[in-house]
Amino acid sequence: MSQQMRVGVIGAGVMGEALISALISSGVAANCVTISEKRADRQNELIALYGINSDDLQTNVTSADVVLLVVKPQDMAGVLDDLRDAINPQAVIVSFAAGKRIDFISARVQNPVIRVMPNTATIVGAGMAAISVGAGVSVVQREFVTKFLAATGTVIEVPEDLQDAVTATSGSGPAYFFRFVEAMVAGAQELGLSLEDATTLTNQTIIGAAKLLETSGKSATTLRENVTSPNGTTAAALQSFESSELSMIVAKAMKAARDRSQELA
Fold it and tell me: What's the CA gap between 51 and 102, in Å, rounded?
């Protein structure tokens, strides 16, 4: 049944393209996917790459069974106004806009809504997506969205009141990771390593640690303890983290992200 779903993708940036790829990977026929994108060059690029269709916004949503809104939060109200009178009343709206609540959409359009918080690793098929399902969403619609998102990585379902916490954890989380990598590279340079060597050492160390966490079946706590000898070099580094109250710094940063997500609602 999912292959018969006609999907309208509104917004074709990096995330939009990742979702198009996931739709096709999950079994949706390319000719069932239609994009609406203001940039003609970008639109033509995606048509050439994936064999999908394009159309203007109103025409697209008139025939779509699933409408993916991959737009910036500040653009959401305008897009909803543009599609309100044209959208297929049986379609499910799937929103990827950070901070925008289901009731924000439902106040403008009567269709059932699924809210999704993805993250940037979606573009390499290793993403983390959390969905919240609004009133009126059918089992078929929910399963369709869950299935195609699974092609982007891992999917969980959470109550909507936890979406801001999800944003602070997995939505913004990749940036925390990248910032830590930047700090490690800089620290290695201060110890005398070249930028090239510092980057190689740091990147592979992080990648290897992540792989170990993924495949070992052990918790981060256990893995940390296993690599930390009493009074050794790792213990000295970790003690420095603790003296700087690393847990508090991270918790404070995540709270700031959560609060900003709430402000965007």
Answer: 32
- How many structural domains compose the chain? 2
d(CA 45, CA 104): 32
Torsional sign, CA 218, 222, 223, 226? negative
**Residue that finishes a domain, picked among 163, 197, 217:** 163
Given this model, what pLDDT does residue 59 score?
Answer: 96
Per-residue pLDDT reduced to its tens digit, 214-224? 999 999 999 99
Residue 168, in any domain of the structure: no
The CATH number linked to 85 is 3.40.50.720
Q: Following CA atoms 98, 104, 105, 107 in sequence, which dihedral angle do they give, to the nearest 10 degrees?
A: 180
Residue 147 clears pLDDT 90, i.e. is over it: yes
Report whether pLDDT(101) > 70.
yes
Of 143, 163, 183, the one marking the end of a domain is: 163
